[in-house]
Amino acid sequence: EAGVVQSPRYKIIEKKQPVAFWCNPISGHNTLYWYRQNLGQGPELLIRYENEEAVDDSQLPKDRFSAERLKGVDSTLKIQPAELGDSAVYLCASLPYGGAYNEQFFGPGTRLTVL
Amino acid sequence: SQQGEEDPQALSIQEGENATMNCSYKTSINNLQWYRQNSGRGLVHLILIRSNEREKHSGRLRVTLDTSKKSSSLLITASRAADTASYFCATVQEYGNKLVFGAGTILRVKS
């Protein structure tokens, strides 16, 4: 079974530029999470999707961050414009239906560096 | 904000020794999970312990949970160089459906 796929793995941009990250969850997993992990810290939730619906986006900085999961499968997280403080690893994770209390399956992450 | 606090922040041991990491949390939980993260990679699930369990084993891993003290520990026995990684505890709240991570413990196993 293929795992969670994320691309790109690394991205270097200058501040004020836009950037987008892509995630393809494990086949059949209807729940999808985006996390941000700052250096030396644990991941922090940005947004959670159940199918195509964003059911928890309370920690997503909506002035510059946006996300979509149009067909309830793969998802895109966008930052526009990027700031220096956005440098972090962006992780995607997924869960099958009914697995809310179980382990999450993480992708390898996208390491963003904003110069 | 992160719920868990982990102790120690970093741990360096010799191959073959045991490694113990501790985690404390603040609210009532449904379960507590431990994850490993190798340098530059995503997180891998190690073990899950439910709030009504006190101890759980998986291979060389032993996890304990004390809900009265809101704390957990992860013991890795007979450590190997390949165990070098960051270890995170994460809680699922009693009526929640998201993981809340601690800051992690960096483990280095020297061969």
Furnish the topology, listing elements before pairings.
The complex is a heterodimer of chains A (115) and B (111).
Chain A: E1 5-7, E2 10-13, E3 19-24, E4 31-37, E5 44-50, E6 53-56, E7 65-68, E8 75-79, E9 88-95, E10 105-106, E11 110-114
Chain B: E1 5-7, E2 10-14, E3 19-24, E4 29-37, E5 43-50, E6 55-58, E7 61-66, E8 71-76, E9 85-93, E10 99-101, E11 105-110
Parallel strand pairs in B: 2-11
Antiparallel strand pairs in B: 1-3, 3-8, 4-5, 4-9, 6-7, 7-8, 9-10, 9-11
Q: Which outline of chain B best applies?
A: globular
Extended strand count of chain A? 11
Q: Based on helices, strands and strand pairing, what is the structural class of chain A?
A: mainly beta
How far apart the termini of chain A lie comes to 37 Å
The fraction of residues in strands of chain A falls at: over 45%
Counting copies of identical and different chains, the oligomeric state is heterodimer
Helix count of chain B equals 0
The two chains with the largest interface, and their residue counts, are: A-B, 24 and 25 residues
Report what the structure shows.
The complex is a heterodimer of chains A (115) and B (111). Chain A is mainly beta. Chain A has no helices and 11 strands. In chain A, a hairpin with a 6-residue loop joins β7 (65-68) and β8. The N and C termini of chain A lie far apart (37 Å). Chain B is an all-beta fold and 111 residues long. Helices cover 0% and strands 59% of the residues of chain B. Chain B has strands spanning 5-7, 10-14, 19-24, 29-37, 43-50, 55-58, 61-66, 71-76, 85-93, 99-101, 105-110. In chain B, the strands form 2 sheets. In chain B, strands 2, 4, 5, 9, 10 and 11 form a 6-stranded mixed β-sheet that branches. In chain B, β4 (29-37) and β5 form a beta hairpin. Chain B is globular, with a radius of gyration of 13 Å. The A-B interface holds A 4, 6, 33, 40-45, 48, 56, 91, 93, 100-109, 111 and B 1-2, 4, 30-31, 33, 35, 40-45, 48, 88, 90, 92, 97-104.
